């Protein structure tokens, strides 16, 4: 048989026939294709899983929230292209909270404002969603707007922000108005308007609950698929610390939903006498404490923590520890609710009972003390 002619640049292989060489080439090409196919299949499975996870996440959020962190973590598994992932702990709890009114309050830098920007997007895919996010002054609002631009344009590349009205328009038609309310009377700018989500960043800047209470009257929708929510963040103390504590902190331990109460009488708010639901409670509130240690983005270097440690005691307790009990000028600044307060209990027979009185400067108080002589500590 004649030696096969070589093409220009082709190296001869005289142990294998030309036919065999061709067969091997085809086999090699086939193997490469099969490998590529397997890769594509794996990619497709991952993509399908991701789409399923995202769909589930959207459903869960739209149906009002999730109950556990693990549930959220499971939904976010393996997702590499997330625009936002909540920090484990309070930030996740805040974003998942189903209560009508929730305060996310405590330490500085815990990730509260960032979470507000995300919570506002709960129904961004629904054209009837109308969000209102407030700060007390325009200057304070600017920082939030800057951050929202980074986040929202990433999540919704087709979203538009109108600088003149400070309004976001999402591709679905949903809107989010970023605004400020300084004085009580400013709330009447919203008279006649309705919102499905209302949030105030730094609620403690308001000296009274007036603005918060009024805005509740603007929370409504005719769209039955939308749950309406009011959300707030705050640091302990400040001009509004006193009423926020009464409204959100004192009624129940943190992270416990409770029926909304009147902050003056401490009685549960109920439907009026002529209502079919007369006497029934109105809606739930919850307080979620924020801690700096839960925000890995600010804890990375430890620098910000060091700044907070350097503050005078009262401010340090408020802004580093998120302590709502510490009062300016208080005699016992070491007071710590988790150390010094016990759950109410039936006092056993035989315990000595002592009563102490303190006239104070403005409000006299009386402290009954029971001593257990038999306790070892
Ligand atoms: N889930 C997150 N993903 C990415 N970055 C985050 C996340 N949470 C917080 N951050 C980052 O941490 C920074 C501080 O968070 P944020 O401003 O929300 O804190 P804060 O609790 O509002 O603080 P302050 O009490 O001082 O108002 C944010 O600017 C943001 O960069
Ligand atoms: Mg903030």
The CATH C-level class name of one domain: Alpha Beta
Beta-strand residue percentage: 15-25%
Reported CATH architecture of one domain? 3-Layer(aba) Sandwich
Parts with pLDDT < 50 across at least 5 consecutive residues = none
Number of helices: 11
Bound molecules: adenosine-5'-triphosphate, magnesium ion
Biggest β-sheet, characterized?
9 strands, mixed
Overall mean pLDDT: 86
CATH level-3 fold name of one domain = Rossmann fold
Overall description:
- The chain is an alpha/beta fold.
- It has a domain at 90-337: Rossmann fold (3-Layer(aba) Sandwich).
- Helix content is 33%, strand content 15%.
- It is built from eleven helices and eleven strands.
- It has helices at residues 18-62, 69-76, 90-96, 112-119, 138-155, 210-216, 241-249, 296-299, 303-309, 313-319, 337-340, and strands at 101-106, 130-135, 160-162, 167-169, 175-180, 197-200, 229-234, 258-259, 284-290, 352-358, 365-371.
- The N and C termini lie far apart (105 Å).
- The model has no long low-confidence stretch (mean pLDDT 86).
- The chain binds adenosine-5'-triphosphate (ATP) and magnesium ion.
- Magnesium ion is lined by residues 112-113, 201, 233.
